[in-house]
Amino acid sequence: MLTRFFELHIEGGSVFMYPLLVLLIVNIGLIIYVLIARSQKKLVHSKWLVTIKQIGGLAAAYGAFGTVVGLIQAFNALENSPEIIPFPVICGGLKVAALNVVYGLAILCISQLAYIILKLSDSAHSSQQ
C-alpha cells in the first residue's frame, strides 16, 4: 500500500507533488505543535489554527493548478501528435493529471478535520472555565 502511494506520488510529477508534500509535512507539524502545546496547558494563539486551515486551502488550490497545467500539456501533446494515440495512453495521462488535485484535496481534508477538532476542543475548553 505504501509503495503504491509513493509510486503515485512520483507519477504526479515532482514540480507539483513535492511542494504538496512540503505543505502536508508543515501542516502535520503545526497540528502536532498545537496538540503538544494544549497538552502542556499552554495558550495557543488562534492564528495557528487559521494557518492550519489556510495551508489546506493552499494545497487544494495548488493541486488544482497542477491538474490544469497537466491537462493543458496533455491536450497540447494530443493536438500536435501526427498519429492517433491509443486510448489507454490518453487515460494514463489523465490519471497522472488528476493525482495533483487528489493529493491537494486529501491535504485539505486533513487540515479541515484538524481545524474543526481543534476549534471544537478549544471552545469546549473555554466554556469549562
Provide a compact summary of the structure.
The protein is mainly alpha-helical.
What does this protein structure show overall?
The chain is mostly helical. It has one domain. It is 88% helix and 0% strand. The chain contains four helices and no strands. The chain has helices at 2-11, 14-39, 46-80, 87-128. Helix 2 packs antiparallel against helix 3 (46-80), helix 2 runs parallel beside helix 4 and helix 3 runs antiparallel to helix 4 (87-128). The longest helix is centred in the C-terminal third of the chain and has 42 residues, at 87-128. It is elongated, with a radius of gyration of 19 Å. The mean pLDDT is 86.
Key descriptive features of the protein:
single chain; 129 residues; mainly alpha; 0% strand; elongated
Uncertain ranges: none
Number of strands: 0
Structural class: mainly alpha
**What is the average of the pLDDT values?**
86
Q: Major sheet: size, sense and barrel closure?
A: none
Order of helices and strands: HHHH
Helix content: over 70%
Query: What's the number of helices?
Result: 4
Present the secondary structure layout:
Blueprint (H helix, E strand, L loop, with lengths): L1 H10 L2 H26 L6 H35 L6 H42 L1
Helix pairs in contact: 2-3, 2-4, 3-4
